[in-house]
Structure formats: C-alpha cells, structure tokens
C-alpha cells in the first residue's frame, strides 16, 4: 500500500499542476478533409428550399366523412337469429363499419328496427332467458323471462337490452343507444331519412307472413302507400 503513488484531486495545488501538464501534451487529431468539395449551383440558377410538409387530419371534407346515415333492419324477415342482428346493430351504432372509426369518438349511424314483435330466437331462449333487476334493498331481487318481457314491454325493449349489453360501458353508451329506433310493427316515421339507392329505399318493410300484426291500422296505411309507389328493381 505504501509503494502505490498517492492520487491527488485535480483541484488540489499539486494535482492541478499535474492535470494541466497532461492536458497540454494531449492534442486532438485533425479531421480529414473531404476529397469532394461541396457542390455549388451554376451561375444564373436560383435555388429554393422546400419547407417540410406535415400531414393534417383536416385535409378533405371531414364533415362528410362523419355524417350519419339511417339504416333499416326488418326483424320479421331477416333470416339471422336475434343475437346476430343485435351484434350488427351494435357495430353500426359504434361506427365500426366506417374507416373513420375511433373508440373515443361518437361516429356511428342511426338504426331503425321494425317488426320487433316477430324477433327470432334459437333453442329455448325465449322461455329460459331471464332478466334480473334489484332495488338495492334486501330480498328485492326480481327476475322476468324473455317471453314475459315481450308480452309485457314488447320486443323492442328486449332488443334495446341486448344491444346495450354489446356496447362499450363508457360515457358514449347512452348516446349510441339513443340512435336505435325500435318499433313493434312495420311502420315508422323515418322513411325519408333512410339510405337510398337510385332515389329509392333499398329495403321496404313488408308484413310478416303467418303473424298477427299488433298495429293493423298502421300496417294497412303503409301497404296502401307501398302499392302507390313504383316497385323496387
């Protein structure tokens, strides 16, 4: 330990002088010069610098991209099951079918569901499916089957509950669900808002065969109006 030299701090009087001698002897190597000189434009030609362009999300008609369309779903004639239809309705309400979809933005469309009284279920779900509610008081748990709910509140309420369970549980849930307009019969006041192809509605509500209508007067009016219009090709 005694043979080892004492290392002194550069700030000390002795260490500072030794540190200065070492820094004076060290020389930085010179950078090699480039063999090719920088290019210069010819005489008489002006050069301009192009500013860097940045992408903007406001390019284009964003109001048209976020516009809402109205879609019609015929529950009486759709061959899909009740759950498949509810899934497609929830996707349309969220706007997942659009290229401008964003989870935090309300960019969905409107959905008009008619014929909810004739919704189709598979298996014994109509009798075995139960809905529960609780008033937060002990012993006040209530349950009701799907068949009884359809007879008491209608098929539109069953559709709303199914779609509500498929929507994300956030602040946009009630706003998206409010754009679902469900009706028991086939009449609705949103005929002029529906999506049209060639000036005509792409779907026409028709009375379901084999079912007794719960709104016969309104269905008769709609049938007379559909006869007066030109048939959809």
Automatic annotation (TrEMBL):
Residues 20-31 have a biased composition (Low complexity). It comes from the Eukaryota. Residues 1-49 are annotated as: Disordered. GO terms for cellular component: mitochondrial large ribosomal subunit. Pfam families: Ribosomal_L13. Component of the mitochondrial ribosome (mitoribosome), a dedicated translation machinery responsible for the synthesis of mitochondrial genome-encoded proteins, including at least some of the essential transmembrane subunits of the mitochondrial respiratory chain. The mitoribosomes are attached to the mitochondrial inner membrane and translation products are cotranslationally integrated into the membrane. Its main location: mitochondrion. Belongs to the universal ribosomal protein uL13 family. Keywords: Mitochondrion, Ribonucleoprotein, Ribosomal protein. NCBIfam families: rplM_bact. Residues 1-10 have a biased composition (Basic residues). GO terms for biological process: negative regulation of translation; translation. Residues 32-41 have a biased composition (Pro residues). One of its GO terms (molecular function) is mRNA binding. Gene3D superfamilies: Ribosomal protein L13. InterPro entries: Ribosomal_uL13 (IPR005822), Ribosomal_uL13_bac-type (IPR005823), Ribosomal_uL13_sf (IPR036899). It comes from Choiromyces venosus 120613-1. It is found in: Mitochondrion. This is Large ribosomal subunit protein uL13m.
């Amino acid at each position: 330990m005694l043979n080892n030299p004492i290392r002194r701090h550069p700030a000390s009087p002795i260490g500072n002088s030794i540190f200065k001698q070492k820094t004076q002897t060290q020389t930085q190597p010179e950078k090699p010069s480039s063999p090719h000189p920088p290019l210069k434009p010819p005489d008489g030609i002006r050069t301009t610098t192009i500013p860097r362009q940045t992408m903007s999300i406001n390019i284009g008609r964003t109001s048209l991209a976020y516009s809402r369309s109205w879609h019609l779903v015929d529950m009486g004639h759709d061959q899909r099951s009740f759950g498949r239809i509810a899934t497609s309705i929830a996707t349309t309400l969220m706007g997942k079918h659009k290229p401008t979809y964003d989870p935090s933005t309300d960019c969905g469309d409107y959905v008009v569901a008619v014929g909810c009284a004739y919704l189709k279920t598979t298996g014994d779900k109509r009798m075995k499916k139960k809905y529960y509610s609780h008033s937060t008081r002990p012993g006040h748990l209530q349950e009701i089957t799907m068949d009884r709910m359809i007879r008491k509140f209608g098929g539109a309420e069953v559709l709303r509950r199914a779609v509500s369970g498929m929507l994300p549980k956030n602040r946009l849930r009630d706003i998206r669900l409010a754009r679902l307009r469900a009706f028991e019969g086939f009449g609705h006041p949103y005929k002029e808002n529906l999506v049209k192809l060639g000036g005509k509605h792409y779907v026409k509500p028709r009375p379901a065969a084999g079912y007794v209508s719960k709104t016969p007067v309104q269905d008769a009016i709609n049938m007379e109006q559909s006869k007066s219009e030109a048939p959809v090709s």
